[in-house]
Every structure is written in C-alpha cells, then in structure tokens.
Amino acid sequence: TDHLIKWCQTHKSECTKLFLDSTQDAQEEGRSKQQLCHGKNQICVEMVKAIFLYDETEEFWVLAQTNPGVFASSIHSHLDVLKSKYQKQNVLLGQTGAGCTYEELISSEGMRNIIYMIQKEFPWWADLHGWWRTNPMYNNTWSSADSGQNFSVHAVEL
C-alpha cells in the first residue's frame, strides 16, 4: 500500500484520471478534463511496474516487469479494499466532516481526535481523502447538500 500511495503522489495526472477527474471539477477549476487515453487498466499496469520494483521475490519482480498485466487485477482489487476501508473510516466523520479537507478537519478541535484515531487504524486515509473526498463513488458519506436549505419549509409551501 505504501508503494501504491507513493506512486499516486508522484503521478498526479494519472491519479487524477484514475480517481477523480470530472467535467464539473475541470470547469470549476478552469481547466480541461484529463482524458483516459489508455484506460484505468493501463494505469494499473504502470503502477504494477513501479510497485514490484521493491519486491524481494525475484520471480515477482521479473514477472511484473515482463508481464505486468498479470497483476493489474490485483491492483484493482487492492484499490477496492482501500476504498472499503476509507468509507468505513468516513462514517466516523459524519456527512459534513467527510466532505471537509484534511486541513479543515485537523484544525477543528472537535474532529482532530477522530482524525488521529482514523490515521492510527488506517494510515493512508489522509492521502486517499485528498483524492476521494468529493467523489461520491469513493466517499459515500459526504453530502454536498447546502445545510442552509430548509427542505421541510419548502415542502410545506408547496
């Protein structure tokens, strides 16, 4: 997991394509959407090559360099496991907290201890939160609803 996170940190464009780039995000940030030219599987193949450079088992290292596609499904599965663990931790933050940035959460007295507890159990949470925070595919706890909206009053008015 450490190598996967490090790869994502050093390959920001691929990470954006893999995890979070949407047309809406691109428009809000005044840039064009990053297109997946080769698909998510190709990005996972590149991850495999980098991750298994550190493997102590020579046969895995050689296989990852000569036929990295063999491990691509393992990367997909591992990302699914990380997603599940990330979602489990976000429940502790509630709808509002799960949508806040790491910096906002750590500066809040009420959330700081929760963040420390999350990171003790799941040390990759802060990195994943930076990528997945506003993506409902990964962060299903977060709500983008405006808390100032009073839906019950509007319903009564109808």
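[next item in queue]
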Amino acid sequence: SFKTHINTHWCLSCIDSVETGFYLCAYEFTIRRLNSPWCRLFDRADAQFSVYVYQVIDYASDLDLYYKRGYGHKINSMASCVLFNDLFDRLETAATEFSSDLPVSEVVTVEIGHVETLLPLVTLLGLFRDKTPLTATNFASQLHRAFNGGHIMPYIGNLLVALYDCPDGFRLQMRVNEKPVQVPGLNEFSPLFEDVKKRYRHILGCSQETVCKMSQ
C-alpha cells in the first residue's frame, strides 16, 4: 500500500505519487467505471489512512480552486461580472415583458461552460462562502467547509436561476446541481426579485473595463 511505502521511504515525491495514484483511481472509476489497480493502493486494510489521504487531497484541490477561481482573490469572481449582468438583464427583460402582457422573448436561456466559467459566477453570487477563509494551515477546522469543489462543481455541475410570478410579485430561485440554495442575506429559497436586486446592487452594472484594471 501507499502507507507502507511512505512510512519506509518518506519524501516529497511520495506525496506526489499518492496524489497521482488517487486521481488515476478516481478518473478511471468515474469515466470508465473501472475498479482501477490504482485504487488497490488505498487498501481497505487501513481504511482510516485512506480516508485521511482522500480528505487531504480533496482539501488541496479545493485550495487550488479557492485561490484560482473562488474567494481567494476578488478578481476571480469579478471576472464574471459580464456574465452576471447578462443574467440579470435577461431576468429583468422577462419580468418587464410578462408584466406588460407581452410575449416573453426568452423563456429559457441555456449557456454552456466549464468550471472556470461557472465557479467564478457562483462565487460572485456569494454562494458556499465560509466564514473563515481556506488556508494551508486550517485543514482540520475546514473538514465541513461550504466551499467544497467536489460538491459544488461535479461533472455536469450546473446553476439554474428561475423567475416565478407570484401574488406578491416576482420571486427568484437559484438551484446549484438541482438543489435550491439561499441567496446570501435573504433567509428564504425564493425571495422577491426586487430584494435580490437590492442584495446585489453593489455589483449590478459592473464593467469589464473596471475589472481589467484590478490587480488581484
């Protein structure tokens, strides 16, 4: 097992080998549904060690996402301001057309991207934000963190934003991977659209030119 090898030959290259073996195991199982020989290195004979390895590698991956695409730097999320404003412009147009008894020009809009596109937008919306930033020194206290890349951005990860016509006005609901999420600061899953716009008023109308001038 990896544990035997590491205990006998402790070195930095061994850590790299553990991570490589872990991802080879994960990818072959996920994509090809194979019980890869790589997975046997994380043997059940020492399940506790295997769980620890998974938690450490998972956290290292999240740290990478956190500082490249997430809350680690403000510019990460602000890079999505054009996409963010496009989303709210479309919602505003739909609400206005519906209120005016006009045909809604865009009933559904589907946009396809990758984690590099979706995660900054989710971050700009303030979703899955921990009270304490993720760092290399607080692994133990972040085991139950909100910012967990495997949960937020799995294969075919998605963000759905829907507008509902209700008796008290238009209400908005966000879903991440088909599960409703609360708009930060609004303690309900389907808050009034006007309240959502107030919540995000500080970034509505942001420009790409301003973002490009940001240092970090």
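[queue empty]
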